[in-house]
Amino acid sequence: MLHESTVRLVSFLSMLALVALAEFLFPRRPLTTPKARRWLVNGSIVVLDTLVIRLTMPLLPFGLAELAAARGWGVLNLVTLPQWASVLAAFIVLDIVIYLQHRAFHRIPVLWRLHRVHHTDLDLDVSSGTRFHPLEIIISILIKLAVVLLIGAPALAVVLFEIVLNATSLFNHGNVAIPLGVDRWLRLLLVTPDMHRVHHSVIPRETDSNFCFNFPWWDRLLGTYRAQPSAGHDGMQIGLKEFRNSEQLGLLYLLLLPFKGRRG
Asked: Which position among 101, 157, 163, 256 has the lowest Cβ density within 10 Å, counted as fewest Cβ atoms?
């Protein structure tokens, strides 16, 4: 059987290639900054994130799920449920926690300092789904570790969630044109690029909306859903108002960004 990390890597690269191809064939918006420079920065960030995780995290959510199952830790390991029910319950809990985590990273100033690195991208495409500061990645993993331990998430649920989360992050950041009629129905089941693009608007009330990555329901249920940007998808400006110089937004600048300036 393939190792969990191999399955995740193959899934990630396959989705990256698929969305990149769709962007080339069916672009939603013209890009405003040089694509090669952005892809170099975003690609460097994901490589750095991977190295940091390998060097600093001796135990990841999948490994902890296996350990919790062996030791009987967590709620789902203390009750008798069909495997499918345990997997589904854990997946849903992990998904709503990621939604709440995302809101917290916008609401709490010290966390926003990290997360704004993601929002400094002046265009939105599949590479934007990898643009997260290493410290944000570490905090996210620590939160998932706590949830996995508390609920006793099955290892299968954890690996499925990680694969789906990576895939949807790439998909919903994609610069892909989806027919409006299809998008209207699709966003009832999952977060579409048009839905998530609103979240990357320079307008704060739009930035603080549409926090979901996988299921779109939490935004609707908890009052953070916004259907469309006020300027329309063709007219909206992406990024943050205080960071508009694409040449300045290099790798080193982004790594140091959380330690500079005010919250914004």
From this structure: 256
HSE-CB of 45 using CA atoms within 13 angstroms: 28
The CA distance from 189 to 195, in Å, is 12
Helix-then-strand count for the chain, H and E:
13, 0
Could you give the angle at the alpha carbon of 182 between the alpha carbons of 180 and 183, nearest 5°? 60
Average pLDDT, the chain: 95
Report the amino acid identity of residue 255.
L
Residue 166 and residue 8 in contact, taking contact as beta carbons nearer than 8 Å: yes
The per-residue b/e assignment along 45-75, b for 16 or more CB within 10 angstroms, e otherwise, is bbeebeeeeeeeeeebbbbbbeebbeeebbe
pLDDT at 259: 93
Query: At residue 147, what are phi and psi to the nearest 5 degrees?
Result: -70, -45
CA distance 164 to 168: 6
pTM surpassing 0.70?
A: yes
**For residue 44, what are its two tokens?**
């460097």
